[in-house]
Amino acid sequence: MYKWLVARGTVTIVQESNLLSVDIDPEGSASCVLTSQDAQEIAHIITERARSIWEASDRSPEPKASVDGDSRAFRLTVASGVVTLIAHDSKPFLALSYDGQGAALLTVTQAVALVQLIQHLLRELPEA
């Protein structure tokens, strides 16, 4: 289990057999706020855990991840709800929120999509 205290809130990542459980707790706010460093570290952890799941699996193809949005805001639909990522317009922060029951449960494909979205949004952030 990885529990990350981000600029505002906490993000907990747990590998559960063939899924990643990502608990996004904004601690009373509308969303967690991640610095660039927070986002990079969380993306790294998700990548490592997804790789571990993939290597232990039978490597059967999964359905494509369901993502919609624009260049600065995205929604990733997962079985348990919707993960939303938004790049701040004037500060080097990402807003991360989850609308669903319990933690967000991600397949390997969805975990890869989340990492790709984080990486894209990090490039969109203004300099610190």
What is the radius of gyration?
Answer: 14 Å
Largest sheet: number of strands, sense, barrel closure: 5 strands, antiparallel
What is the molecular shape? globular
Strand-pairing-aware structural class: alpha+beta
Mean residue pLDDT: 94
Total discrete domains: 1
The tally of beta strands, per DSSP, is 9
Protein name: Roadblock/LAMTOR2 domain-containing protein
Secondary structure layout:
Blueprint (H helix, E strand, L loop, with lengths): L1 E4 L4 E7 L2 E7 L6 E4 H21 L9 E4 L3 E6 L2 E7 L5 E8 L3 E3 L1 H17 L4
Helix pairs in contact: 1-2
Q: Could you please describe the fold and organization of this structure?
A:
This protein has 128 residues and is of the alpha+beta class. It has one domain. Helices cover 30% and strands 39% of the residues. The chain has helices at residues 36-56, 108-124, and strands at residues 2-5, 10-16, 19-25, 32-35, 66-69, 73-78, 81-87, 93-100, 104-106. It has a 5-stranded antiparallel beta sheet. Helix 1 (36-56) runs antiparallel to helix 2 (108-124). The protein is globular and about 45 Å long. The protein starts with a strand and ends with a helix. The model has no long low-confidence stretch (mean pLDDT 94). This is Roadblock/LAMTOR2 domain-containing protein.
